[in-house]
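Annex B. Sample input.
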Amino acid sequence: MFKQKIISLLEEITKLPKEKISTLLEVPPSQELGDFAFPCFFLANPKNYDEMWKDVEKDFFIKKSPVEISQHIKDMLIPKIKKIPEIEKVETRGPYINFFIDKKILAKNVLDEMHKDYGKGNKKGKIMVEYCHANTHKAFHVGHTRNIALGESICRILENAGYKVIRANYQGDVGMHVAKTLWGFMNLKKLNLKMPKTYLGKWLGIVYAKASAAAEDESIKKEINEINQKLYAQDKKLVELWKKTRQWSIDYFETEVYPDFDVHFDRFYFESEVEKKGIEMAKKLLKNGVAQLSEGTIIMDLEKYNLGIFLILKSDETPLYSTKDLYLAELMDKEHNPERILHIVGSEQKFYFQQLFKTLELINPKNAKKQQHISYELVNLPTGKMKSREGKVILYDDTRDKIKELVKKELLKRNKSLKDKELQEKTKKITLGAIKYAMLSQSTHKTIIFNEQDVTNFEGETGPYLQYAYARASSIIKKSKKKAKHTIPEALTEKESALIKKIADFPHEIKKAEEKLDPSIIAHYAYHLAQIFNEFYHAEKVIGTDEEAFRLKLVDAFRTTLKNALYLLGIETMDEM
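Annex B, continued. Sample output.
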């Protein structure tokens, strides 16, 4: 509310659009410099003027320096802010206009609005988010957790904004990777493998890696190709084996992966479900003259769009990813008719999605407009890139179990009297919080170097640090015998003001995360919020002071805000660590 009032004032004077003012408005590094600062460099640059500024004092702004412009705007603001109690004063520091807001009014507003739904929106509409893509017959490694954590967090952010979200999971259950695993299963002796009694779905990933390595041999590669062709031809014995092993993978995902990420999908799509219709669709596009034939292969010529040639069906009618994806887009739209369909897929597929969306645009422009690729960079090991086919991966549950041991040791170091059941529950929540925060705290444009020791640090920018901050706040409230009240003191301390300001930023940060579909915005916000709370905690005594009731209310407001932020990241909180 306070920021919006400042933006409206600046819009009235500068005639700049609100969106531009919002991007220029800064939070100063020190409270002595105010709560918001507006830099005037932009106004002093003639190159930035266009038709939207026809009502502005162009001559004044162009002919003056940023310092002179800031002084001029301040003079125009002073009589206006006298009518706005939320803004205490306005000053200039060189080329900056600094706004000071009334902390008592801010504190009252924040505490009045504080409830479990703090930060929620009321948007309408339906959005489908397609994520996870856990392929059957392959390993689920730690790199896949970035996708599932990112997808689930985006779903929660959109739901928080008011949208109805349809969670979809599109899984590859046919293709060469399946043929390799089936060949490996039928040749366990050659691969020096034995079938375990449990965790069969996880074990298939090992079979796949071994079979992929063996496929370097041309004769084995030929056998795998034959298996693939027989599967497409519906060979009875192979289909029976495919169904059995496919179910092992599905059971593994349902018991070991999805529960950890608190994920419940509304619709599971499988490649086997869409491949036949995709083949029919490719042939129809050829028949209607939309697609072309090139050496027996059906293609989309996208050269004039600088997108090259897009293959949509091989000459032997073996479907490609594109064959299946074309029909998948049609099926998703037909079944749910969402206003947007978001595909959470790695950045290495950027060009592919550009080709796919352009092809959809030529077929069905209305459907194409709904499609959006949310890309993200890879998760690498400190030793380099993970490769499932070479077995150079860290399996998810192996990673989870290793982190559990690190967390368990840390918890016992802090509290040796923890009972086993409580220890196990806390260990699990902290472990999953560590993994999720590690996957969500980095911008999607950055590669993650995953290191178990780093993500479990209780003092750094990690999930455990945030969970510990929540537990610390809960402990304060539990120890106090007074009831929290929001009777605002006459003068707020610097640490109280800083915490109130940060809590007040929450709805704005959520909105940014929703607009950019970027959970890292919330992750960083949560971390800085926890930092400011810890500074408040160390500087200001709560229990046994005259301000105890107010500070308890402030601590509870922090706790509610952090819990809401962590929920959007899929991270659970605990009252005790």
